[in-house]
Design a protein that fits this description.
By secondary structure, the chain is an alpha+beta fold. Helices cover 27% and strands 18% of the residues. Strands 1-2-3-5-4 form a 5-stranded antiparallel beta sheet, covered by helices on one side. A hairpin with a 3-residue loop joins strand 1 and strand 2. The relative contact order is 0.16. Residues 5, 16, 30-32, 40, 85, 91-94 line the site of adenosine monophosphate (AMP).
């Protein structure tokens, strides 16, 4: 068994404000909310990143897609962001995969997902061709 704070929450060793649970997933309020209703959805299976999940995240994202609009409705939010910091370099702090559902409100002072990189790189056409080919090569076997 893994030893991290979300495993402890799943095992009932530390408390959480749960809002949903099924056979494979669990959802609870983020303790440092970015907005009213900021919710985390986690798999019950131990997995540090999405790639470590046996089903590749199918159950996790099924819960997210069903839960997110209900979370938003519950707090009167007209919109929401969904985010997953997948890996340490992406900002993941807790080594148990989790999806953030962040309700968004009119004039809430927040930003779109593009704000994760304030100084985006620029690529010329040749570089974009190379990037496209590299990714298409990787995905050909899907
Ligand atoms: P991340 O940076 O994507 O790993 O996000 C981890 C999130 O977990 C942060 O938003 C924290 O506020 C949240 N968090 C950490 N500990 C707890 C806890 N005990 N209960 C609820 N949320 C937590």
């Amino acid at each position: 068994m893994a030893d991290n704070i979300f495993r402890k929450i799943l095992d009932g060793e530390i408390p959480s404000r749960d809002v949903y649970e099924d056979d494979d997933t669990y959802a609870f309020l983020d303790v440092n909310p970015l907005a009213r209703g900021h919710t985390l959805v986690i798999p019950k299976e131990d997995a540090e990143t999405l790639e470590d999940l046996d089903d590749g995240g199918a159950a996790l994202f099924d819960t997210v897609r069903r839960l997110a609009p209900r979370v938003a409705d519950a707090v009167g939010a007209p919109a929401y962001n969904i985010g997953l910091n997948n890996g340490e370099e992406a900002g993941q702090e807790v080594p148990h995969v989790h999806v953030h559902i962040v309700p968004r409100f009119d004039d809430d002072g927040g930003h779109p997902i593009h704000a994760i990189q304030p100084s985006p790189p620029s690529f010329d056409d040749d570089e974009m061709d190379g990037i496209q080919d590299a990714i298409a090569d990787e995905t050909r076997s899907l």
